[in-house]
Design goal:
Number of domains of chain A: 1
Number of helices of chain A: 2
CATH architecture of the largest domain in chain B: Up-down Bundle
Shape of chain B: globular
Distance between the termini of chain B: 36 Å
Largest sheet of chain B: 2 strands, parallel
CATH class of the largest domain in chain B: Mainly Alpha
Oligomer: heterodimer
Number of domains of chain B: 2
Order of helices and strands of chain B: HHHHHHHHHHHHHHHHHHHEEHH
Structural class of chain A: mainly alpha
Number of strands of chain A: 0
Shape of chain A: rod-shaped
Order of helices and strands of chain A: HH
Radius of gyration of chain A: 16 Å
Distance between the termini of chain A: 16 Å
CATH topology of the largest domain in chain B: Sodium/glucose cotransporter
Strand content of chain B: under 5%
Number of helices of chain B: 21
Helix content of chain B: over 70%
Helix content of chain A: over 70%
Chain lengths: ~70, ~575
Amino acid sequence: MNLDIRLPMGLMLAIMGAILTMYGLFTRSDPMYARSQDININLVWGAFMFIIGVIMVVMARRAMRASGDK
Amino acid sequence: MKLELHSVDYVILCVYFIFVLGIGWILRRYIKTGEDFFMSGRSIPAWVAGLAFISANLGAQEVIGMAASGAKYGIMTSHFYWVGAIPAMVFVGIFMMPFYYGSKARSVPEYLKLRFDEKTRAFNACSFAVMTVFSSGISMHALARLLEQILGFDYHLCIIVSALIVLGYIFLGGLTSAIYNEVLQFFMIVFGFSPLVFLGLKSVGGWEGLTQKLSAVAANPNNPAGKAFDPGAWTHSWVNMGSSHTNPMGVEWFGMVFGLGFVLSFGYWCTDFLVVQRAMAANSMSAARRTPLIAAFPKMLFPALVILPGMIAISVQYDVGDFLPKTPDGQLDYNMTIPAMLAKYFPTGLLGVGITALMASFMSGMAGNVTAFNTVWTYDLYQSYIRPGQSDKHYLHMGHISTVAGILISIACAYAARSFDNIMDMLQLVFGFVNAPLFATFLLGMFWRRATGHGAFFGLMAGTLTAALHHGLTLPHGAVAGIKGGWLVAGHAVHVYPVEMAQNFWAAIFAWSACFITTIVISLATQRTKSDEDLKGLVYSLTPRITDRDIPWHKQPATLGIIVITAAVILNFIFW
């Protein structure tokens, strides 16, 4: 296919992850984290989504470069 | 119950919608022919097709419904996955995909035309086309009603916005766009619901704590099933299935294994164009065969994402109380399980991700139905019966028109569903009658060359009538004659099933058997109209075997199939 799905996929996860992480950083001692049992789940999960997103983008770019070399 | 969204949640939701529409926008450049629009130019890699295959099935009704079942029946709900999906997915990948993909049919009804005759195709194409637009409308209605209920959004606005988004990306990018967005949705569901399960399990003290709390639910005579069971009733999937009276689901193992595991499950996974279309878009025969097998891996693990939240919710409900909201008649509203869980465990921010995942699954449910509809309409109805012999450009244009039409009809159906609850129940009932016997027709068609067009057509009719007749003669326990059954005998049912689900399973068994026998009898009594030469590539014994020897083991369908089945058996034993 002409568009590697991992590129938009990874970008989206990375952007969402970055937003969550930032939000988590700014709301560190917010009482709303009582809901997530005192875990700053925005920070943790946001960072995880960000990393997965970046990995996908890197994989897509590698694949594109490899097919561009041919 | 109300959830409160803040600006960060809306930002996340917007990011998702921008990507959804952006994918359609980028893909529009690649849509040049009808094959690009309707079949993704047969160019989708196996893993993408596989994730789309599973996502197309994982509509929101499934997410909401499976969580509700998880609360009502516990881990037994996993039978819908490990028994009611995995074996059929392996079967369609290994045994049936060679005929779907190899015959170059562009749709499931078209396969029926190649294998049998015009009338069998017409019957299947018409019932399928009607069914898909209605399902799309029901998804749309469910989404709008849920958002109205939990977020206070305007119903009409939800309908318009969701219709425009789905229309936008399918109109631009066709099936490829739908498939890519299904992959997006798959990841949204995984990322949106995993933390829910994690936080939920943590709060009830892990699996141990959950088992303990659920045994109290099982022993409580006021539990969802209304009577006390063995303490393990919510956490064991098989041990209480000896009789329909010893488990909360109210079904016994035979009806479940044959009705759900064989007839209903094979009928859905092996013949429903909505899912099969994803595999047909794969870029090679090998990829098409691997599509359902790749899909089987996440499918096997989905119970953890969709059933477990329901189990956690019911344990909290009985432990602490006041967790699930109530319906107007005072019953627990199980359909609110996921929203209630989101409200309890997710802080602002992650809540946006959770809501996005929920909306994503509604929309891809609609989109999947719309792409299946425009293909069946354009190829099987318009090209076959209305305007044959036109240029490819003409049919591509029709694809765009039928996409718009499909969405408009869906909107009409959504409003119909809103105003008349009963009409929708009735339609779903009739679709059930039509679907139940289908697998018998395909099984005989693919593996018995003697099956004829007349046999297939009248077999389908007999199966559909049997399902209707069975419904007219039987009732679930405690129901009144009417939409629930018994309408032929004014409530003096010939047989009373303990629950509606058992009635459905048995209806499927009867319908399938009637279709199977009738097809054989009529086939033997009628002349073959297709020679062995015609049936090459359509019937097992007349098609050259595909050898998988020269491809690596992890790409061999048979090897993957064995791994999938073994894993499913192990899961069944773990939660025995």
